[in-house]
Amino acid sequence: MKIKVIIACCLALLLYNKAVATTLKIANDTDPVSLDPHEQLSESTLQFSHLVFDPLLRWNKNGQFEPRLATKWERIDSHTVRFFLRKNVAFRTGNTFSAKDVVYTIERLKKSPDFRAMFDTIDKVIMVDEYTIDVHTIYTNPLLLNIMTYVFPMDKAFYQGQDQIIKYGETFASRHVSGTGPYILAERKLGSSMELTRNPNYWDKNSVGNADKVILTPIRADSTRLAALLSGDVDFIFPVSPIDIERAKKVSGIQLVTLPSTRILLLHMNQNRRKEFQDVRVRKAINLAINQALIVDKILKGYATPAGQLSSDRFLGYINDLEPEYNVDRALKLMKEAGYEKGFRISMMAPNNRYMSDEKVAQAISAMLSRIGITVDLKTLPKAQYFKEYDNRSADMMMLGWQSDTMDSNNLFEFIIACPDANTGMGAYNASEYCRPEIDADIRQANREMNPERRLRLLQQIERKIYDDAAVVPLYWQSLTWAAKGNVNINDIVNDQNYPHIGDLFIEE
Amino acid sequence: MLIFLLRRLLQACFVMIIISVISFSIQDKLGDPVQQMVGMTVSPEERNQLRNELGLNDGFLVQYWRFAKGAVHGDLGTSYYYKEPALDVILEKLPATLELAFCAILIVILIATPCGVLAAIKPKHILSRLLMLISSIGLSVPIFIVAILMVYIFSIELNIAPSFGRGQTTEFFGFWESGLFNKDGLSHLLLPSLSLSIALMPIFVRLIRAEMMDVLQSEYIRFAWSKGLSARRIYFIHALKNTMLPVITVGGIQAGTLVAYTILTETIFQWPGMGFLFMDAVSRVDTPLVSAYLIVVGGIFVITNTFVDLIYGLFNPTVRLASHGL
């Protein structure tokens, strides 16, 4: 009898242990501005989308496409791709997911001010049957799949009729959400926390994700965020600033994961403001005077990759032999040849809270330029003010970081290198005012070129031309760092776009 | 009394108008709110259209007039981020800040008063000298260093207090979220309120000491001694009461410092109060919220200083408020 009682007790205890919910507390730097996945194209919105919604397909860690709500896809003709959708998937509301939701979502994306530019390429979406759609593009588009990673199907029956997108006012979609994702939003305290629970009917039964509850807290200050992890108040944080990484590494029970990202940091030399920058020799001299490797090593503590070009090695345009070069003697010689032996004075602006250690990097650059006689009047500003100045092209030299939305070189070229054109939006961030019509022609062609080899040649040709012209100063590709407690297997779920797939996160007991 | 209050009310209105003009005119310097609302790749026309819809392309006077008209009706604009009336957002965060400030002030009063008195009564005592030394250090060390040090010691090393946030709260009267009535809330309150009080403490210890020493020299204290009153009665009733007058005045002025320090403390400890809200609003260029915050804080200033003047009368009945020209 006694033994039976003990066994019963043990069993009860065992069951109780199983029943204890695993809670994952995450602290990141910003929370999404809205629950509406189409209101703002930003990192935090997309991180949220991956929690509550599912994309049709997503990038895996190796840069390959992974099927999610679309199980497979095939190209039917040069303008059309057919997507086969997953069956037996339900939204949070219980509504069944089908082709109508995807058609609805893409049509809504075409209305969103932030996503419109990317989805303009889609002419129409045709429902073939309940679980098949055909996506027709206006022109041939080699990047259609890259773009489709931004399609997170929304529950048509839930949103329809009250789905307007307003950026500064309350809308139904900004306060209510229904997706198919691994988590369901339970509570949101704007600006302070967000609580999500595991979707009990989640379609992906193979997912190893086992957090029953996720609490997301945005913590702005880097040191507070790290302190929260070290004191055990949260389990998983990102980003981690390079100064803190060394400190965190020494703590036992804390793991750090670093991945190189594709975000390129660069300097623009405004040729409209300064006639000196119109001389390719001066631009080359500046490129030679800046020691990218030293900046990465000393300021970023190795958490970046020195860059001699814009495309990261994940992109098609990447050319193996374009390394950053540092040579002050040659820089001085070039300055002399150009007739600026005595140097000149320029203004420079950089943000001080947008990129990793941006202010220190800018200071280092101004010191490096002084060695070839260029005196820099440096002004650093918080990002909110900085980008206003950036749009006004307020300084001769300006810093910019760019992450390609399509994970393709051409997005970089379109926004940073193409001739500025207010009507087409090309060159919107080209603060160099550098303009080569032949590059623009190549960019346009690469946008429609379906042959991968020809496309590769086109993009590399552009990259080479930028290098030869020293159009901008590429600095480095920033790395991404996440930190977590030892039992949280973040290594399996992080990726170079910083959209951790929390739904698949496994926490050891 | 009534004349005094009326005069104060008039002054307050004037002050508020000035604050509103200033807070409104700095909006332009904060950055571009539209920039914060849209993704990097959104075209200039789209941005301009949004700017038009928000009325940001109108002239300063037009915008200010629109704002002032709303403000008279209690509408300080709608926060871009919270998408709710800015005043509601701020009032919702007010309890957190008030509780933090209240606890800090409580700690200051409970610690600074006995310390100051001790240092005044026994200036040569080793403990007094130590106190003065510590308060000098306290005056010169910035609050964020104190705060970060406390987080390091108490939450990372000793693990006795949480490092951020407010923890569990209980609701009172349907609007006041209080963290004072449960253990979790109180433990979250510990480090922020201690940091805040450390920032304010030294000046009060020094002030009380100096004033007390002054008072102890005066005629009526000597008279009290010769009358044979007990030391406790002399120190804590007669002397302390008169010491407190200048302390209260300084306290009123220090309310400004308190507000500035709450912004810092709340940012470091991720305390979901008004100061944190303000910093967030500044970085998001949520201009309506920034203006509303400045106006609310301006209002709190006017109210506390009026209150301080009233308390003044309680401590020293010879002060005539109405004839004081206040």
Q: Can you tag this structure with a few keywords?
A:
heterodimer, A: 509 residues, alpha+beta, D-Maltodextrin-Binding Protein, domain 2, Dipeptide-binding Protein, domain 3, 2 domains, 11-stranded mixed sheet, 4-stranded antiparallel sheet, globular, B: 326 residues, mainly alpha, MetI-like fold, 2 strands, 2% strand, transmembrane helix (chain B), cell membrane (chain B), transmembrane (chain B)
Strand content of chain B: under 5%
CATH superfamily of chain B: MetI-like
Spell the H/E element sequence of chain B.
HHHHHHHEEHHHHH
Uncertain segments of chain A of ≥5 residues (pLDDT<50)? 13-19
Distance between the termini of chain B: 11 Å
Assigned CATH class of chain B: Mainly Alpha
Extended strand count of chain B: 2
Number of extended strands of chain A: 17
Lateral arrangement of strands in the main beta sheet of chain B: 1-2
Whole-number count of domains of chain B? 1
